Structure formats: C-alpha cells, structure tokens
Amino acid sequence: MKQFQHPENFLSGLDPKTTGAVIAAAADVALILDDVGVVRDVAFGSNDLPSHGYAQWPGQSWLEIVTSESRPKVEALLRDASPQSVSPLRQVNHQSPKGADVPVLYSTVKIEGNGRVIAVGRDLRDVAALQQQLVEAQQWLERDYARARQLEMRYRLLFQLTSEVVLIVDPATGTVAEANPAAETLLGKAMKDMVGKRFPRGLDRQGMRSVESLMATVRSVGKADPVHARLADGTREFLVSASLFRHDRESNLLIRLCPVEENGKILVQDGTMSPLCPYVQSSADGFVVTDDSGYIVAANRAFLDMAQLVVETQAAGESLERWLGRPGVDLKVLITNLRERGLIRMFASNLHGEHGISANVEVSASSIIDKHQVCFVFAIRNVSQRLSSSPSAGRELPRSVEQLTSLVGGVPLKEIVRETTDIIERLCIEAALDLTSDNRASAADVLGLSRQSLYVKLRRFGLTNDTA
To answer: What pTM was computed for the model?
Structure first.
C-alpha cells in the first residue's frame, strides 16, 4: 500500500470532524477502538450495514462481535496497528442477526499519542457472492462433463454389444464413419475395414439399389420403410433400416441391418431387449420395451425398482401410463411423437411407484420397426437428485409445514389455515428481500405493499428489529 509522501505538509490542518467524515466516506465501515480493543465509535459508508444490527457495537469488545474463527485475525490487526504504517489486510466475519455472516476486509492504524486504533473495513459480500457463483458454476460444469462422459460410455457400450449391424454414414458422401463389431461378424470379409469406404457395398445389385433409394428417401423426407437386401454371394439376407440424426450441427445416417432367416423371421432373440440384456439389466437407468399401444413387453431391473415392483411379470402386459406421468396425457404425447418422428429426447415427466413414492424423470424413446410389428423403447432416468441440488431449486419450507397435518383434530381448521398463510407470507417477503438485495422500498413495490405495511410484517415475523 502506497501512502502520501508528505501528509504533514497538506493534512496537518484537518480537524477531527473533517477527518472522521473522510474516513467514513472512504470505508464501508470504520471503527474507533481504545487501547484494549473495545469499540468506542462506529461509522458506516454503506447504508445497508446498519440494518444488520451493527449500530449497537459501541461499548462491545471487537472480539465479541466477530465469529470465533475471526478472533485470531482481530488480535493480529490490533497487534500490528502502528502510527507509522497501516496493518496488513485481513478478512473478518461479523455475526448478523439475519443469519449469514458478513465478511469485511479490515486494516488498522494507531493514533499516535492516545493509543486508540482506527479500523477501516470494506464490505466483501458482493465479492463473496460472486465467488460462490463461480464455484457453483464450476461444480455444475464438472458434473455436466462427467455426466456427458458417462452417457458417451453407455451408448458406446450399446454400440459395441448390440448383435445388429449398426453403421454411421455421412449422408453427403455416403462413406462409413463408424461400424460396430457385429458388422464384420455378420457381413464377413465383404465389409471388412469398411470405415472410410462408401456404403452400400458387398450387397447384390438389387440390394444396393434398394439401400441407395432408402438412404436418398431418408435424406430428403427424414424417414422411410425398411428394405430387404442380400449379400453379393447370396448367403444371407438382411432387413435394412435407416434414420437421420444430428450431432454437432451435422446430419448423419444410422443404418441398421437385421439378419433374416429363410422363413422371413427377423432374428431378434427373446424380444427387442434381449440382445442388450447384459448391459440393459445392469444399467442405472430404466429401460422399457412396449408395443405400439404402450403396453409393456419387457423392463429392466432399474425400472422395476423405480416402479416399486418385485418381478418383471408384474409389469408385463400393463400399460406404461400406470406408472409414467399423468394418466391419458404423458404416454399419449410420447407415442404420438414416436409415430410421427420416431425419436424423443429428454421428455420431462414423473414416475409413480406402486407404494406412493414419486420421482422426477427424463424419458428418451425411439421406435423399432421390423417386418411384423412396431415396438417402442423407453429410456427413463431419475433426475430428482439433480433437481433438488440445483441452485435454482426453491428453499425448503419450515418444519412447521411438515407438522401442520399433525394438528388436524386438535386445532380448529381456521387456525391451521392461518398458520399456513403466515408461512407462505413470510417466504414471499424473504424472497422479495433477496430479490431486491434487502432494499425495503423495492421489496414493498415487488410485493404490492406500502412501506409501512411491509415494516409491520417484518416486525411480526421477526425479520428486523425496532432500531433498524
């Protein structure tokens, strides 16, 4: 800290009143302490600080008006006070009757001759709030990054384990960007090292024309019916389907080739979910397969846990709307969109368990079309914990709300209603004060009250004191 070089030449004529005005104007809070650390006078440059009850400091020891962890810092500030230099800056937290501590950055200087000490402080609440926001933002970024990595790992595992041939194709060039291990296993040498090569290849002429027409239709319309194709050597027949999706602002084609037996039956073992059983059954997210009307065909363990069911047979044959969302609304919306677009991502809904426990969920779904029927696959993720830890989530109601139901039978209904009204009124006032940074006049305008009415309510709920 750089000080004036010749203050004795220019400031020697300042009287005590002028000096006090300068100190008060330069600091958010200034204390005058005696030689044993007792506050003798206090001045505030911030109009907000006196409302925290700090106007009653004179006559109290500085050590008594700070938090316990700040007392060593106060002792160091008093010890380092000197007439010749300003003490190092130290952050001290003051107790507040409003709840949250108020951080203040202090430095001290001793008045030569009488041993008194002047402590000049700067209010750090805005800085602390900004730091807290930065920490919360960083934590949310880290959680989102970890969640994205886990999601990528899950779908990469699905891509690798599925028994169907799955190809990611660039719609503009027709080249294969990715292919799963099943491609080489089922298509043989004709499709070996297919990444970077143009698709279709290795199929008979009729099959290649059909697949090219399928891809062109999907590029222009967005969807098309599956087609049949055979390998060039005629040894195996496949049902080829394609869908268009976007990733990183680019469009891609998802090509699926399902093996077909000689009798025309699609080789999907034990229903749609069976090829993925090792992964799906152990997944933390719920997976449900339904028919085209929403009746459950198969469900994994995570969904059964969320629905509070013991075995899969309890869910088989039941409509998914028995547990998902609002009856006759959510599932109907999902199925309608699946029939029109074939894919839904992160649809917000609720899942209701058999024994009354509810959870906020996100539903992603897709349609699977084979030669005989249409199936819908729902991925259901429990997001209740995410919502409850969100910074935007509302504060919890006071414990008295939880106890209201216990009053029924022992207290008249009018008193219970009055109690509930008081709780809601207090929460609204606290929210308005937070929104306006504790500005009483602005809070009264937000609430549609006169200032006098607001002050009366503040005293009634113990949110202020008469002095303030």
So the answer is: 0.36
Of the CA atoms within 13 Å of residue 172, those in its CB half-sphere come to 2
Nearest to 39 by CA among 3, 15, 63: 63
CA–CA gap between residue 375 and residue 163 (Å, rounded)? 17
Other C-beta atoms lying within 10 Å of the C-beta of residue 88: 12
Residue 142 placed within a domain = no
Whether residues 371 and 421 fall in one domain = no
CB neighbours (10 Å) of residue 429? 21
Query: What's the pLDDT at 180?
Result: 80
CA gap 241, 364 in Å, rounded:
20
Domain assignment of residue 311, given as a range = 274-388
What three-state secondary structure class fits 216? Answer: helix
Identify the burial level of 204 via C-beta atoms within 10 angstroms of its C-beta, where 0-12 means exposed, 13-18 middle and 19 or more buried: middle
Question: Is 321 within a domain?
Answer: yes
Among 201, 229, 260, residue at a domain's last position: 260
- Tokens representing 198? 């143009």
How many Cβ atoms sit within 10 Å of the Cβ of residue 342?
Answer: 19
Residue 167: which residues within 8 A CB-CB, separation 6 or more? 176, 178, 179, 180, 183, 194, 199, 254, 255, 256, 257
What is the rounded CA–CA span in Å between residue 406 and residue 414?
Answer: 15
| pLDDT tens track for 146-203 | 888 877 777 777 777 777 788 888 888 888 888 887 777 777 655 556 777 787 777 8
Q: Are residues 253 and 278 in the same domain?
A: no
CA dihedral over 441, 446, 452, 457, signed as positive or negative: negative
Which of the listed residues 196, 227, 260 is the one where a domain comes to its end? 260
Question: Which pLDDT tens digit goes with each residue over 103-131?
Answer: 888 989 888 777 788 898 888 888 888 88
Q: Is the pLDDT of residue 260 over 80?
A: no
| Cα 327 to the center of its chain, rounded Å | 27
Give the total number of structural domains in the chain: 4
**How far is Cα 89 from Cα 87, in angstroms, rounded to an integer?**
6
Q: Rounded to an integer, what distance in angstroms lies between the CA atom of residue 147 and that of residue 285?
A: 13
Amino acid at 114: N
- Amino acid, single-letter form, for residue 189: K
